[in-house]
């Protein structure tokens, strides 16, 4: 296809503003999929994505569009993830296209992720067409939201396209805007050596790894031998094609085009996102700039509730890792939990997604230990150790100081909840950087320790603002602080899975809260159980769980047999989700819940 007839674009939006629905409509209206094959949210393939309404991996689709000028254009849509954890995936797929549709829910206005994503688009030099969605709803206020886009983002919104992705109203205008207002790909040279960007990849059980590519220069053909410039791997190309959105073979992919290749690549790990693909011989000399592999930032231990399922867990983790290069794992042994894995994730959502998939797709009940960030531990001898697990904290006498990662968090919130948000950020050791107004909403920017955010910050934020706040963050660097390792002892035995790193000034409060929670969460035993928090050898908080009365069913006052039976059954079911620590059984739920802060 000649460059002038190609439009490559992405859709940027805050979660739930209608990105996937709009993508579906564009595909439907251009007849890319027959009515029979159309199902909602075509581009969101995974179950969890569907349930949570989020798109995790970037997806792509090619649409042929006969425009009003009489020419047929090729539109390539890359659908990017909308969640903070996947910021790197967004930024890299943005570099594969020239324009963006900025979708804003006209009943809600600009949100934190709208800002984060649109800034990424601006950084990638995109032309941007604002689209106001959900105009079918009575609460839609296009004038106000257009003004907000101009004030807050600083782009012209006078010609914003007004649509309802749900009813289909305005979709033809979106298609015309893509053709007339977004630019074609920048110059690409067909006769130059192949230079293609690796945009994304995924594992297909039949085809092996499928690689999504954007051609910059040259032509990619079936049978070519290609080389990944960063990883150095070389492969023979088996198949090339485009997504419509079903995989459809094509003879070649030329400059400006987006498509896929397969080359009997065994694992996703061999295909680094952002890498440059060229031919093995007579290839291009300089790779594309800006490559960086995605790095895990949140770590936690995953252990099977049932120790006999360790091999199954290993199997499931290896399978999932084949398809997700941003997820890391290594075997871990814990005195209390036995064999498991220490895993690294891009963020909490990523952690939850992987954990859910293991539990659901592989049927393994898991104990998840406290999520931790990577601390930098500076030893007295000058060495620096990256600490991924509080259990590995070196002996304090050898430690000079610790540093922790900090983030810059941007939160948009209606005025009435501002006070609660400021309090939450202060409570989490935040330092305010900025407070301004974006339309009717306050925009607060905080410098926060990542460790205070990884656990339940997002949940807390949602609850104190009744869901009205939006949040986005980026890592800004490491900073020294007074951090200590706090251990929890149950019946005098340390439970390393509950060890956490905390700020010294907050250790007592945190320790007390954890002991109180555990007292609620651990069922009574025949003996009394002390639950303690300690720093080094020093106890800083203590609760005692009283001993159980002899007969659990005694409180049913004899008569009601079915109630008695139910109670016993409940106990039995509960047993399965318990783990033994010394003489004490701790339910799986305790590991996560004990760490939540109120
Ligand atoms: P995404 O998270 O940006 O991909 O948003 P979705 O496309 O999944 O849409 C989020 C929700 O908004 C879904 O329940 C959609 O049905 C709904 N939605 C999307 N567009 C419209 C619209 O134009 N009008 C109305 N009323 N609802 C919409
Ligand atoms: Mg979506």
From TrEMBL:
It comes from the Bacteria. Residues 4-186 form the Tr-type G domain. One of its GO terms (biological process) is positive regulation of translation. Its EC number is 3.6.5.n1. It catalyses: GTP + H2O = GDP + phosphate + H(+). Pfam families: EFG_C, GTP_EFTU, GTP_EFTU_D2, LepA_C. Its main location: membrane. It is a peripheral membrane protein. GO terms for molecular function: GTP binding; GTPase activity; guanosine tetraphosphate binding; ribosome binding; translation elongation factor activity. PROSITE patterns: G_TR_1, G_TR_2. Keywords: Cell membrane, GTP-binding, Hydrolase, Membrane, Nucleotide-binding, Protein biosynthesis. It is found in: Cell membrane. One of its GO terms (cellular component) is plasma membrane. GTP binds at residues 16-21, 133-136. The keyword Manganese does not apply. Belongs to the GTP-binding elongation factor family. LepA subfamily. Required for accurate and efficient protein synthesis under certain stress conditions. May act as a fidelity factor of the translation reaction, by catalyzing a one-codon backward translocation of tRNAs on improperly translocated ribosomes. Back-translocation proceeds from a post-translocation (POST) complex to a pre-translocation (PRE) complex, thus giving elongation factor G a second chance to translocate the tRNAs correctly. Binds to ribosomes in a GTP-dependent manner. This is Elongation factor 4. It comes from Rhodovulum imhoffii.
């Amino acid at each position: 296809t000649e460059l002038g007839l190609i439009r490559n674009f992405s859709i940027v939006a805050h979660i739930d503003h209608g990105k996937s629905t709009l993508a579906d409509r564009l595909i439907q209206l251009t007849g890319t999929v027959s009515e029979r094959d159309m199902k909602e949210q075509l581009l969101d393939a995974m179950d969890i994505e569907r349930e949570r309404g989020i798109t995790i991996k970037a997806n792509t689709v090619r649409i042929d569009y006969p425009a009003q000028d009489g020419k047929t254009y090729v539109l390539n849509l890359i659908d990017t993830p909308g969640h903070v954890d996947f910021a790197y995936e967004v930024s890299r797929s943005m570099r594969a296209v020239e324009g963006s549709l900025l979708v804003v829910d006209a009943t809600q206005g600009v949100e934190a992720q709208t800002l984060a994503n649109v800034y990424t688009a601006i950084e990638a030099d995109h032309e941007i067409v604002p689209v106001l969605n959900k105009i079918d709803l009575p609460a839609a206020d296009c004038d106000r939201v257009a003004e907000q886009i101009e004030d807050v983002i600083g782009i012209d919104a006078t010609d914003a396209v007004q649509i309802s992705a749900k009813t289909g109203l305005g979709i033809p205008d979106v298609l015309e805007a893509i053709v007339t207002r977004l630019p074609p790909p920048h110059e690409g040279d067909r006769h130059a050596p192949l230079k293609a960007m690796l945009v994304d990849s995924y594992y297909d059980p039949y085809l092996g790894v499928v690689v999504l590519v954007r051609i910059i220069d040259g032509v990619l053909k079936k049978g070519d031998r290609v080389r990944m410039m960063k990883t150095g791997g070389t492969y023979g190309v088996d198949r090339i094609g485009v997504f419509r959105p079903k995989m459809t073979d094509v003879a070649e992919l030329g400059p400006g085009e987006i498509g896929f290749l397969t080359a009997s690549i065994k694992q996703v790990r061999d295909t680094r996102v952002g890498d440059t693909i060229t031919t093995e011989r007579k290839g291009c000399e300089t790779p594309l700039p800006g490559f960086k592999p995605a790095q895990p930032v949140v770590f936690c231990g995953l252990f099977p509730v049932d120790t006999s399922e360790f091999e199954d867990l290993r199997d499931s983790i290896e399978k999932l890792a084949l398809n997700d290069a941003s997820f890391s794992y290594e075997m871990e042994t814990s005195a209390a939990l036995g064999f498991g894995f220490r895993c690294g994730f891009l963020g909490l959502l990523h952690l939850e997604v992987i954990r859910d998939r293991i539990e659901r797709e592989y049927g393994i009940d898991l104990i998840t230990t406290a999520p931790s960030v990577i601390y930098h531990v500076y030893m007295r001898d000058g060495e620096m150790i990256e600490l991924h697990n509080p259990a590995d904290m070196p002996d304090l006498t050898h430690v000079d100081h610790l540093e922790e990662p900090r983030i810059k968090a941007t939160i948009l919130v209606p005025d009435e909840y501002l006070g609660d948000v400021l309090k939450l950020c202060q409570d989490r050791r935040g330092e305010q950087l900025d407070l301004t107004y974006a339309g009717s909403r306050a925009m607060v920017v905080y410098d926060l320790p990542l460790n205070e955010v990884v656990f339940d910050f997002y949940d807390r934020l949602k609850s104190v603002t009744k869901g009205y706040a939006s949040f986005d963050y980026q890592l800004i660097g490491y900073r020294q602080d007074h951090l200590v390792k706090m251990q929890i002892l149950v019946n005098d035995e340390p439970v390393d899975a509950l060890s956490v790193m905390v700020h010294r000034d907050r250790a007592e409060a945190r320790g007390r809260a954890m002991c109180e929670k555990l007292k609620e969460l651990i069922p009574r035993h025949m003996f009394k159980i002390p639950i303690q928090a300690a720093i080094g050898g020093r106890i800083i908080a203590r609760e005692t769980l009283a001993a159980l009365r002899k007969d659990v069913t005694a409180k049913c006052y004899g008569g009601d047999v079915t109630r008695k039976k139910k109670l016993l059954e409940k106990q039995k079911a509960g047993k399965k989700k318990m783990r033994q620590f010394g003489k004490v059984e701790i339910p799986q739920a305790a590991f996560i819940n004990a760490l939540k802060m109120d």
